Structure formats: C-alpha cells, structure tokens
Amino acid sequence: MTADMAANMRKINASQAVAESLFQEMECDERVVILGEDVGRCGGVFGSSRNLLDRFGPMRVRDTPISEMSFTGMGVGMAMAGLRPVVEIMFVDFIGVCLEQVYNAMAKIPYMSGGRVKMPMVIKTAGGNIGSAAQHSQCLWATFAHLPGMQVVAPSSARDHKGLMAAAIRSDNPVIFIEHKGLLLKQAKEFLNAGDVPAEPFVTPIGKADIVRKGGDITLVTLSASVEYAMEAAAQVAGEGIDVELIDLRSIVPLDVETVAQSAAKTGRLLVVDEDYLSFGLSAEIIVRVLERLGPSSLRQLRRHAVPDVPIPAALSLEEVLVPGPASIARVLREMAAAS
Amino acid sequence: MKLNEINLFRTMVRLRAFDEACIEGVPTFEIHGELHTSIGQEAIGAAMAQSLTPHDAVVSTHRNHYHALAKGVPPRALMAEIFEKETGLCRGRGGHMHPFDPERNFSATGIVGASLPVALGYAYNFKLKGLPYVAVGICGDGATNHGTFHECLNMAAAWGLPLVCLVENNQYAISVRFSDVTATPGIAERAAAYGALGRRVDGTDVEEVVKAFAEVAKHTRKGGGPSLLEATCYRHRGHYEGDHDNYRERAEKQRMRAEMDPIARYRRMLVERGAAEGELDQIVAAAKGEMSAMLADIRKDAMPDPAGAMDHVFAEVV
Ligand SMILES: Cc1ncc(C[n+]2csc(CCOP(=O)(O)OP(=O)(O)O)c2C)c(N)n1
Ligand SMILES: [Mg+2]
User: Among the four residues A40, A115, A130, A291, which has the most C-beta atoms within 10 Å?
Assistant: First the structure.
C-alpha cells in the first residue's frame, strides 16, 4: 500500500462501503447499471445504494416495481447485451420468486453456450438474522453454492464489502453478493474485524479466505456476520487459554479449502460456524473437503455449529437458541477444548 | 344493505387503536422485524368485515392486522402473536407478518405477491365443493406488478373461481411511487383484460367502500367469477415502524393525512348527520382503553419456552 493510500483510510460502515464501491465502479465503467426495489430514490432500504440516483440518473439507477422474476431475467438479458447489471433482491428470502432466472439462466447460460456467452451480472441481496422471523431471516448461501455456475460471496468487514463488490462487478462470472442485515445496520466503530477502508477503488480477489485471528488450538471457519460473533467468542475463551485461529471465508464459491486445510492440519480441531441451515450445507462441505485433502483420520475433532433444520421463529427467546451467536460459539469452543 | 353508522365508526376506531397499541412494542424491542401498520386504511378493513361470512377465506399481506380482525381473528391472540408470546395465535412462531388462523380461514404472508395464489387455492376448494363462499386475496399496489397478480386473475377468470382480489392502493411500495412503475392511472381497469369485474373506490370513504366491497363480493359469491376491487388510500406512517420515510415530501404527507383519514372523514359526516360529538369521543376512548388494557394483560404472558424451538417443523416428530 502506498503512503498516500494509507492517508486515505477511513472508518466507514458496511453499507457505505458497498455504496461507495458501486459509485466508483459506475464512474469508471458506464456499462454498470443497478436495478431493484428502492435502490434509487431512497438509496436502498439499508442505504447501500445511496447517492447513486443523483449522480447517474434513472437509466442507470432504476427503481423497479416488485417484479423480481422479470427484472432478474432482465439483468440476464442486459448482461448478454453487453451491460454489467447489478440486480438487487432486497432480502435473499425473496429469491424464491426469481430463482428460475437465477439458476436456469444466469448460472447456466455461460456453460450452455459452450463458453461463448459471458454473464457479468451481480445479484446483491441481504440475508441474516436480526429478529425478522421465518420469511426475512435466511442466509441461503449454500442454496446458491449448490447450483453450478454461481459464485457466492458473503463479506464480513467493511473493507471487504467494498473490495469484494468491486471484484464482483468486474468479474465476467455471475456472482451473488450476500450482505448481512446485521452488518449493514452496524456502526463503523462497532466492528471488531475493523480494517479501515481505502477511499480509492480497489479489488479484493474473490476466492481467497482471510485469517482474521491467528491461533494454535482450534480452527474456526465461518463468514459474514458470524465472523464478528466468532471474534467475540474467541476473545472470551482466549482468557481461558483457548487459542482460536479464525478464518473468514469471504466466499463459498470458490471455496478456499487450502487455507482451511492448512490451519486444521496445524490445530487438529475444526469447527465450522454457519448461520445458514445445518443439513446438506456449507459445514458438511468444508469438513469433507478438508478430510479429502488431509485424509479421513487427520483431525482430532470436527464440529458443526449451524441453524438446526428449522425455520426461524419470530420470538427472540426461540431465535436465540437456534442461531449461532457469541455465547453459543464460545460454548462450543470450550466443549472442544475440554474434550481432548 | 342497511348501515349501522355507529358500529362502522366503532370498527374503524378499534382497528386504529389496535395498531396504535402494537406500535408501543417497537421502541421497547418487544416486537422485532419490520412492523407494518395500516393506520389510514381502516375503512377497507371495516368494509370487508361487513360482507364476509365466517367461512369465507382471507389471505393477507405484510400489512395484515386489520384484515385479520375483519375476518374475526380474536384480537388478543393476534396481539399476543405480534408481541411474540406463547399465548399468540401461532405460539410466537409466526410473528406479526405471519398470522395463521385455520379455524377462520385467515392467513398472511410476508412475501409480496404471495397472497393471491394462496387465496386462489381457497377459491378452488369452494368451487370444487360447490360452496357459496369467496376467497379474498389482498394485495398492495406494489404487489399488483408481481407476476402472480396476472397469473391468479387469469386462472380465476378462466375457471370461474370465487376470488375477490382486494387491492389497497396507498400509492407507494416502500419508496416507489405507483405512478413511477405503472403507466395506467389505476389498477381496476386491468380487470377487463381478464374477464373479471373491476371496481375502483375511494378507500377512505367508508360507506363507499362498504358498498363497493359488498357489490363485488356478491357478484363473485353468486358465481360471477373473480372480481377486482381497488381501494385508494394513503399510508399515514412509514412503510414500517422506524422507516425514515424521507422519500415522501413532508407537505404531501401532511396534506394526505388530513384529506385521506377515513376516521376523521366519517366523524365529520356523522356529526353533520346529527351524531353527538360526545358519543363519538366516548367510542374512541373506549377503544383506546380496551386495547391498552389488552396490551397490559398480554405483557404478562410468557415468552415461548426455548425447549420447544424445534417443535412444529413436521406434523409429527420424526
Ligand atoms: C417478493 C418480495 N419482494 C420484496 C419484498 C419487500 N417488500 C415488503 S413490502 C414491500 C412494498 C409493498 O408495497 P405494496 O404492495 O404497495 O404494499 P404496502 O406496503 O404499500 O401496503 C416490499 C417491496 C417482499 N416482502 N417480497
Ligand atoms: Mg402500497
């Protein structure tokens, strides 16, 4: 990093970081167009497309009707026509409405065309638990990861929100960029995984995990808001002599198995924390890939801590026992440390 | 139909008092997620209550409290659900966007555009069994630009299903103005394209809405096929409690709240017709008292026991 770049480091929050990235990418590439519900006049319901309408006008910042199937398909057509659309699906839960265009068109056309068609399209959407019950709380990253052809990004730090959004926009692959509502609403100063954000445009490569905390006892792998929860948990148990190595995956397609496997080989204990559903998902996938690489009996302990297979209830007394948080992560870490 | 004016007034006032009581749970964090109130849209719920029978079905939206109450869902159970209590309509699992009352054929969804298809299912059942009931699918102006609106009206008309599509056109879908995303002045005019009966009504003039809803419901109940009632109104508060709502001009909000307040309008009308101000005041005070007592009582109820967090995923434990 150059000296004047360091001078331009600021503490901004995640939604500002995304909006700034969109702004800068739209400045330098006029093919970038954003469309979705409330992205224009109100700058996104979480403020992550603020200031764009005034600067770029309604042809490039389009407030759409609530017609997800059609405007997602429109994004596919725009990408095929040579634009670089960013389509916002306000909450990831609403993807059901337009999943057809996502997995039959956006994800498959590059392959079906024998590589002749590129799909430089981003779906930008918010997931995660903040007490909004069954239809507005899901993460669903594993669902997208299961569909061949999609790259799946879920940032944690404000810095990564900016750098990974730029990478997603510049990529010729279809990318789903899953923000976490809790992170979008978090103030800059509240972030544990702080990392100042450069004012200049920059790219964080998609597919490279980040070792957020070095440690020798347990490898803890997670992403998105759970990185913050895990940092809190790791700090708690550090006082008890449990030294956690924390890895922020940043993306699950591509999945940086290399970084995870190296760490797990060192610590011998692997814990995957996932705010998405437990079964048929990220946690099993990571564990299997690590074992495939290191051998089936290479690790002393394997643990998964994810949302058990149940829709998210409205009552907070129920949500709290289902969704991984700092306290439950710390509990699992203690159990692992005590076991061997 | 003979109107009981005082009852109609009371119904609207109770609806508003209900939502006002719910609002109290937001700053205290008793209610989570985005709470959507219908303040300003009371006339529509009240009108529906006049025409529905216990067997009719209603499928509502994220903005569902008035529709639930109009369908006869017990206010206490509904409010307890909104406050996420074990005593709630859905044992605190559903919350304010997802109330289900199978005994009264009432349900709702937090997904825009997802109400009409489910209403269509109820309508299909009524037709299959030859029952004289209607299914009311409710949606906002925003939801009418969802594919399901077209698909459901088409199927309902093609098969002659008893679907009443009730559109609450409050002119906004969050920040997006109806006129920015729709080229026609309204929604009712689409009915003709499907072969459905279409009506547009001032949704803040309660007697007009009562008449219009009764007319379309009767048409559909008698086997006339689907109907579409567009009730125009204005959302007095933010999209949800806590919405900054800076996408609507302050002047617009002030003017519209004054002009399009169904309760104030009806009050003026009743006073002109000779109603005593004191009697109307008493009705308002009684409704507020009723709802705040209900809230105080609900606050004493238990939260759901965490031990039951995994219950109800399947009909029986597997
Ligand atoms: C499929 C889907 N897309 C988007 C949303 C987010 N959302 C919730 S309410 C709303 C606006 C709905 O507008 P309208 O239908 O006019 O109802 P109103 O809120 O005005 O009553 C939006 C976009 C959603 N819940 N579901
Ligand atoms: Mg509306």
Answer: A40
